[in-house]
Amino acid sequence: MLSAVIIAKNEEKNIQNAIESVSFCDEVVVVDNESIDKTSEIAIKAGAKVYRDGEADFSKIRNFAMGKTKGDWILFIDADERIPKRLSYEVLKQASSDVIGVQDDSMQADRTEVFRIKRRDFFWGTELRFGETQQVRKKGMIRLIKKNSGTWKGKVHEEFHTDKPVGQLQSFIDHYPHPTVAEFLQSVNQYSTLRAQELFEKNYNSSFVQIMLYPIGKFIYTYIILLGILDGAAGFVYSFMMSFHSFLVRSKLYLLAISPSRK
């Protein structure tokens, strides 16, 4: 049995299409992270099993979701991601071969329980091939796992920890992030707050020099060194916004460090 997990917060614009893209799975579990829109209602109508969890720790939410699935295999996607047909066939091949005991050189499931899946980012009508997103485009992220093969860790940038061999699927997840400037700003503000808090809890500090230099360094790295410039206007906007994220993280970390409550 194959389960899909979608973590969502205020994703009424995306959740329907996300659920439809994993309709090949035997069940779809949506964990609503305290949405104030119609995310849950739309997900229920689309046939998903919906659970609510107000946890701010993304890894805890994913682990919670794993506990709600019935499948032997679990596919994780975000609400703004889509599973193309080619990838769905590959996922089904790996999951079903493990269940029915098929032996095939093209299948890794008989010896692998954890798989990375590469991701293509489509931003403002442009497929981003360079810049910050090229890492997940080339190396992928762990998204397909066999149940009980590991656990998620990390408050903001959650990672799957396992002692099992990690395989690599060949097809891509399609990602459609930040369709408007307002939504991009909202996302950057939200994630920078969480990241600053995470660093603060690990006893990191910030300074005026870091607030000033980190964003500049981030932009040079993503736009010039990682060749984001080759992605045109979309590459510039994406690189600029991620450098702004760096500015917000260091600024918020600085405020946390000097707050009276710390003394």
Automatic annotation (TrEMBL):
<keyword id="KW-1133">Transmembrane helix</keyword>
<dbReference type="Pfam" id="PF00535">
    <property type="entry name" value="Glycos_transf_2"/>
</dbReference>
<protein>
    <recommendedName>
        <fullName>Glycosyltransferase 2-like domain-containing protein</fullName>
    </recommendedName>
</protein>
<dbReference type="InterPro" id="IPR029044">
    <property type="entry name" value="Nucleotide-diphossugar_trans"/>
</dbReference>
<keyword id="KW-0812">Transmembrane</keyword>
<feature type="transmembrane region" description="Helical">
    <location>
        <begin position="220"/>
        <end position="241"/>
    </location>
</feature>
<dbReference type="InterPro" id="IPR001173">
    <property type="entry name" value="Glyco_trans_2-like"/>
</dbReference>
<feature type="domain" description="Glycosyltransferase 2-like">
    <location>
        <begin position="3"/>
        <end position="150"/>
    </location>
</feature>
<keyword id="KW-0472">Membrane</keyword>
